[in-house]
Amino acid sequence: MSFSEQSNSTPNSLLQNNYPRVFIRFLLRFAKALTLGNRAEFKLWCKGQIPGSKLDINPVDDGDFIALIESLLESNIVTLTDLSLLEEFLITVDCRDLLESLKEVELQISLSSIIEVYIKSVKDLRRGAPMKLSCDQANIVKFLLAVKERNEDVICLAINQLEKFEEDRIILKIIENSSPEISQLSWSKFMSYLVFIGEFCASFSWPPTQLPDVKADGCYMSLFSNTNTCKSLSKWMLKNGGLEAFQEFIKEKQQVTISDSVSSSNGDILKKTIELLGNRIDLQ
């Protein structure tokens, strides 16, 4: 039975592993978009990666093919942070649309992971607990925290303005509506937006009904990765060099001393404060 003849529901086995929705959607699209020939090629591609018994499938059957993908997940051959097996296959068979989608999903997951670590770091600092940063995230998150520390006045201005809203869903809507236009983004404004998102999420509680059904360690990542904001920012990152370019921008800024001459602004609730903080970062 083909995907078009099935319902659009996600297989329970994938849901039970608490993966972010954006990750599950990509895996399902990967399975659906491949031709029958591509599926047979992918089965061959997986030889030596998982036990041979797991390859005893009929690639034409949707259930069997999903089971093959799940075997790769269970064996940690494919993970949230390592989609290289799929990427190399898509390059080999020249599936450009799927390859671009994969790169976008990788950035959405990476960006959401940075936001989650930032939020947890802010909460740790408020409790006086030591920060727990992985090597991959440490440089970016530490720099974002340093930007926040040097610009407390601007950040507090925006947060204080939002305190009058009692419902977090309204605040989330304001954050999403204030996302800078993609055509107007720069790395400095991109970074300032991440700082604001992290600070807002750390300052306001999440109603239980808004939290996705995920493990506590991944709740912020899953929540943010499934937003239009994350998707838009990730697309902009992809067009402008991805994480490598972001890290290079941070390295350049770390070598320069911040200017104290930048004034604050009483602009709109978030857009103008993002603009201001972005300009400050440009001067660092």
Automatic annotation (TrEMBL):
Entry-linked InterPro entries: DEATH-like_dom_sf, DED_dom
Residue stretches making up the DED domain: 22-104
GO biological process: regulation of apoptotic process
Protein name: DED domain-containing protein
